[in-house]
Amino acid sequence: MTNNNVQLTFDLGDQVSLNRDDFIVSNSNKDAVAWIDSWPNWPVNVPGLNIFGAPSSGKSHLAKIWRSKSNALSIDDPSMDVIDMRDLLVDHKNILIDNFDNSWKEESLLHLYNLIQELGGSFIIISELPVSQMDIKLRDLASRVSIMSTVELKLPDDEIIKGVMRKLFKDRQIDVSSDVVNYLCRRMERSFKEIGRLVDRLDKISLSEKNTISLSLARRILQETC
User: Fold this and answer.
1) FRET pair for 168, CA 20 to 30 Å: which of 8, 34, 192, 193?
2) Domain boundaries, the chain
3) Treating both helix axes as pointing N-terminal to C-terminal, what angle do 158-171 and 192-208 enclose, rounded to 10 degrees?
4) What is the mean pLDDT of the chain?
């Protein structure tokens, strides 16, 4: 289902985000990307999609791409009230539920799910754990989410880490050797936020010391977090 026209952004915390026309796909995200790319041509028996993964795996940013593509209403408030639900859907028939966990009101989520089905829209739930494995008390809701398609967005692998790091250095017009990129990739925390932090830190230190980004500097920066 993967299509090279997919465009991804990444969760880099407060760092500069990649442009929309940048795209890096690897084994860690290709299944989730394929689902987003294939919308709205999902199988007719798919009532919705649950994208799950660890923090900083990029799932929220991948969902934002779908939100932009589908004009979906994004909801991240666990206390949303069922009373105003239909009014929320006046201009939308697709829904993105972000950061879902057991703190959400189950009755409201069930009502929202049913409304989307009536409208013929699509439903994506973003969570750290598969929704089907959560302790959902409301039986009707549990049965509905159990038949949603589920896809895991894994932590970025070497291919993505190196690609994003090179892109961020390139955006800053910094030439960095493959040895430095490979060294950082093998030893850093595997998250997009950490990639942005390291690039920013290396850039600032190299400028202040009026020196290039070398292996010794990379080693020193990594030791700061140890």
Assistant:
1) 34
2) 30-152, 158-224
3) 40
4) 84
In this prediction, residue 131 carries a pLDDT of 92
Q: Crossing angle of helices 59-70/30-38, nearest 10°?
A: 10
Token pair 């932009």 is found at 68
Which DSSP helix (H) or strand (E) runs through 151?
Answer: strand 149-152
Tell me the mean pLDDT in the region 122-151: 92
The model's pTM: 0.77
CATH 3.30.365.10 fits 30-152, yes or no: no
For domain 158-224, which architecture applies? Answer: Orthogonal Bundle (1.10)
pLDDT attached to residue 20: 37
| Residue-level pLDDT at 83 | 61
| Tens-place pLDDT, residues 198-209 | 999 999 999 999
SS (H, E, C) 97-146: EEEECCCCCHHHHHHHHHHHHHHCCCEEEEECCCHHHCCCCCHHHHHHHH
The pLDDT tens digits of the residues spanning 147-156 come to 899 999 888 8
Question: What residue has token string 């809701």?
Answer: 141
**Is 30:2 a contact under the CB 8 Å cutoff?**
yes
| Fold: same for 30-152 and 158-224 | no
Distance CA 60, CA 57 (A): 8
Q: What's the farthest any 2 CA atoms get from each other in the chain?
A: 63
